[in-house]
Amino acid sequence: MLIENDHVSRETEERLHAYMALLRKWNERINLVSPKDMDNLWERHILDSLQLVPLIKGRRQFVDMGSGGGFPGIVVGIATDIPGVLIESDQRKSAFLREAARVTGARLSVLPCRLDRAEVAPAPVVTARALAPLEKLLEWARPLLKPDGVGLFLKGRQAEQEIEEAARTWRFDVRSWPSKTSPDGVILEVSNFNRAEG
Question: Rounded to two decimals, what is the model's pTM?
Fold first, then answer.
Protein backbone atom coordinates (compact mmCIF):
# COMPACT_ATOMS: atom_id res chain seq x y z
CA MET A 1 0.00 0.00 0.00
CA LEU A 2 1.27 3.44 -0.90
CA ILE A 3 0.24 6.63 0.81
CA GLU A 4 -2.74 7.98 -1.13
CA ASN A 5 -2.90 11.43 -2.61
CA ASP A 6 -3.66 14.24 -0.22
CA HIS A 7 -6.93 15.28 -1.86
CA VAL A 8 -9.54 16.19 0.74
CA SER A 9 -13.19 17.17 0.42
CA ARG A 10 -14.17 20.83 0.28
CA GLU A 11 -15.72 20.60 3.76
CA THR A 12 -12.56 19.03 5.19
CA GLU A 13 -10.41 21.68 3.51
CA GLU A 14 -12.58 24.44 4.99
CA ARG A 15 -12.23 22.92 8.46
CA LEU A 16 -8.46 22.65 8.01
CA HIS A 17 -8.29 26.31 6.96
CA ALA A 18 -10.34 27.29 10.02
CA TYR A 19 -7.81 25.42 12.14
CA MET A 20 -4.91 27.18 10.40
CA ALA A 21 -6.51 30.58 11.00
CA LEU A 22 -6.92 29.79 14.69
CA LEU A 23 -3.34 28.56 14.89
CA ARG A 24 -2.02 31.79 13.35
CA LYS A 25 -4.02 33.82 15.88
CA TRP A 26 -2.84 31.83 18.90
CA ASN A 27 0.73 31.59 17.66
CA GLU A 28 1.14 35.32 18.34
CA ARG A 29 0.74 34.56 22.06
CA ILE A 30 2.12 31.07 22.53
CA ASN A 31 4.71 29.20 20.49
CA LEU A 32 2.78 26.49 18.64
CA VAL A 33 4.91 26.38 15.49
CA SER A 34 8.11 28.11 14.45
CA PRO A 35 7.44 31.63 13.07
CA LYS A 36 9.41 30.72 9.93
CA ASP A 37 6.86 27.94 9.22
CA MET A 38 3.86 30.26 9.27
CA ASP A 39 4.08 31.07 5.55
CA ASN A 40 4.00 27.41 4.51
CA LEU A 41 1.77 25.83 7.14
CA TRP A 42 -0.15 23.82 4.58
CA GLU A 43 2.91 22.19 2.97
CA ARG A 44 5.07 21.89 6.07
CA HIS A 45 2.53 20.70 8.62
CA ILE A 46 -0.94 19.98 7.20
CA LEU A 47 0.09 17.82 4.22
CA ASP A 48 2.70 16.06 6.35
CA SER A 49 0.05 15.10 8.91
CA LEU A 50 -2.50 14.12 6.22
CA GLN A 51 -0.16 11.32 5.14
CA LEU A 52 -1.36 9.31 8.15
CA VAL A 53 -5.00 9.35 7.04
CA PRO A 54 -4.95 6.28 4.74
CA LEU A 55 -3.09 4.32 7.44
CA ILE A 56 -5.69 5.23 10.09
CA LYS A 57 -8.93 5.00 8.08
CA GLY A 58 -11.12 2.14 9.24
CA ARG A 59 -9.87 2.31 12.83
CA ARG A 60 -12.29 3.28 15.57
CA GLN A 61 -10.13 5.61 17.65
CA PHE A 62 -6.63 7.02 17.98
CA VAL A 63 -4.41 8.59 20.61
CA ASP A 64 -1.96 11.36 19.66
CA MET A 65 1.07 11.76 21.92
CA GLY A 66 2.60 15.17 22.61
CA SER A 67 0.11 16.95 20.36
CA GLY A 68 1.68 20.42 20.66
CA GLY A 69 0.10 22.66 18.04
CA GLY A 70 -2.10 19.82 16.77
CA PHE A 71 0.13 17.91 14.37
CA PRO A 72 -0.85 15.30 13.51
CA GLY A 73 -3.74 14.96 16.00
CA ILE A 74 -6.03 17.83 15.00
CA VAL A 75 -5.41 17.27 11.28
CA VAL A 76 -6.12 13.53 11.55
CA GLY A 77 -9.23 14.19 13.63
CA ILE A 78 -10.60 16.62 11.03
CA ALA A 79 -9.70 14.51 7.99
CA THR A 80 -10.94 11.14 9.30
CA ASP A 81 -13.73 12.16 11.70
CA ILE A 82 -12.46 9.37 13.96
CA PRO A 83 -12.63 10.06 17.71
CA GLY A 84 -9.26 10.76 19.26
CA VAL A 85 -7.51 11.70 22.47
CA LEU A 86 -4.77 14.32 22.29
CA ILE A 87 -2.23 14.16 25.11
CA GLU A 88 -0.33 17.41 25.79
CA SER A 89 1.37 18.38 29.05
CA ASP A 90 1.60 22.13 28.31
CA GLN A 91 -1.57 23.74 29.71
CA ARG A 92 -1.63 26.61 27.20
CA LYS A 93 -1.22 24.26 24.25
CA SER A 94 -3.93 22.05 25.72
CA ALA A 95 -6.26 25.06 25.82
CA PHE A 96 -5.48 25.76 22.16
CA LEU A 97 -6.15 22.13 21.21
CA ARG A 98 -9.53 22.20 22.94
CA GLU A 99 -10.47 25.38 21.10
CA ALA A 100 -9.26 23.95 17.77
CA ALA A 101 -11.38 20.83 18.27
CA ARG A 102 -14.40 23.00 19.12
CA VAL A 103 -13.97 25.36 16.16
CA THR A 104 -13.45 22.57 13.63
CA GLY A 105 -16.04 20.17 15.02
CA ALA A 106 -13.45 17.40 15.36
CA ARG A 107 -14.41 14.56 17.70
CA LEU A 108 -11.37 15.02 19.91
CA SER A 109 -10.75 15.26 23.62
CA VAL A 110 -7.63 16.71 25.22
CA LEU A 111 -5.78 15.19 28.15
CA PRO A 112 -3.50 17.80 29.75
CA CYS A 113 -0.87 15.63 31.40
CA ARG A 114 2.53 14.04 30.94
CA LEU A 115 2.63 10.99 28.70
CA ASP A 116 3.99 8.74 31.43
CA ARG A 117 0.98 9.63 33.60
CA ALA A 118 -1.72 9.42 30.94
CA GLU A 119 -4.63 7.13 31.73
CA VAL A 120 -6.77 6.43 28.68
CA ALA A 121 -8.51 3.38 27.27
CA PRO A 122 -6.09 1.60 24.92
CA ALA A 123 -6.63 2.58 21.29
CA PRO A 124 -5.99 0.74 18.01
CA VAL A 125 -3.66 3.54 16.82
CA VAL A 126 -1.15 5.80 18.55
CA THR A 127 0.44 8.68 16.63
CA ALA A 128 3.30 11.11 17.18
CA ARG A 129 5.25 13.67 15.17
CA ALA A 130 8.61 15.27 16.01
CA LEU A 131 8.32 14.19 19.63
CA ALA A 132 11.12 11.84 20.73
CA PRO A 133 13.38 8.99 19.55
CA LEU A 134 11.60 5.76 18.63
CA GLU A 135 12.78 3.94 21.76
CA LYS A 136 11.03 6.54 23.94
CA LEU A 137 7.92 6.58 21.74
CA LEU A 138 7.53 2.82 22.19
CA GLU A 139 7.80 3.19 25.97
CA TRP A 140 5.09 5.86 26.06
CA ALA A 141 2.85 4.21 23.46
CA ARG A 142 2.82 0.69 24.92
CA PRO A 143 0.21 1.30 27.68
CA LEU A 144 -1.91 3.45 25.35
CA LEU A 145 -2.19 0.85 22.60
CA LYS A 146 -4.37 -2.22 22.16
CA PRO A 147 -2.39 -5.48 21.79
CA ASP A 148 -3.08 -5.66 18.06
CA GLY A 149 -2.67 -1.92 17.53
CA VAL A 150 -0.08 0.08 15.62
CA GLY A 151 2.08 3.11 16.27
CA LEU A 152 2.35 5.61 13.41
CA PHE A 153 5.33 7.90 13.86
CA LEU A 154 6.40 10.64 11.45
CA LYS A 155 10.19 10.62 11.35
CA GLY A 156 13.11 12.35 9.65
CA ARG A 157 16.52 11.30 8.39
CA GLN A 158 17.50 9.62 11.68
CA ALA A 159 14.76 6.99 11.37
CA GLU A 160 17.03 4.03 10.53
CA GLN A 161 19.39 4.87 13.38
CA GLU A 162 16.44 5.18 15.77
CA ILE A 163 15.16 1.75 14.68
CA GLU A 164 18.58 0.21 15.39
CA GLU A 165 18.78 1.85 18.81
CA ALA A 166 15.23 0.85 19.76
CA ALA A 167 15.93 -2.76 18.74
CA ARG A 168 18.45 -3.04 21.61
CA THR A 169 15.68 -2.90 24.19
CA TRP A 170 12.51 -3.65 22.23
CA ARG A 171 11.20 -6.36 19.92
CA PHE A 172 8.88 -5.03 17.22
CA ASP A 173 7.72 -5.22 13.62
CA VAL A 174 8.21 -2.09 11.54
CA ARG A 175 7.22 -0.94 8.07
CA SER A 176 8.61 2.26 6.62
CA TRP A 177 6.57 4.43 4.24
CA PRO A 178 8.38 7.20 2.34
CA SER A 179 7.22 10.72 3.10
CA LYS A 180 5.55 12.66 0.31
CA THR A 181 6.47 16.00 1.89
CA SER A 182 10.14 15.52 2.80
CA PRO A 183 12.88 13.69 0.87
CA ASP A 184 14.40 12.60 4.20
CA GLY A 185 11.13 11.77 5.94
CA VAL A 186 9.38 8.47 6.59
CA ILE A 187 6.34 7.17 8.41
CA LEU A 188 7.17 4.29 10.70
CA GLU A 189 4.33 1.82 11.20
CA VAL A 190 5.28 -0.16 14.31
CA SER A 191 3.39 -3.16 15.67
CA ASN A 192 3.80 -6.12 18.02
CA PHE A 193 6.20 -4.27 20.26
CA ASN A 194 7.30 -5.48 23.65
CA ARG A 195 10.32 -5.09 25.87
CA ALA A 196 13.16 -7.41 24.91
CA GLU A 197 13.74 -10.26 27.35
CA GLY A 198 16.99 -10.17 29.28
Answer: 0.94
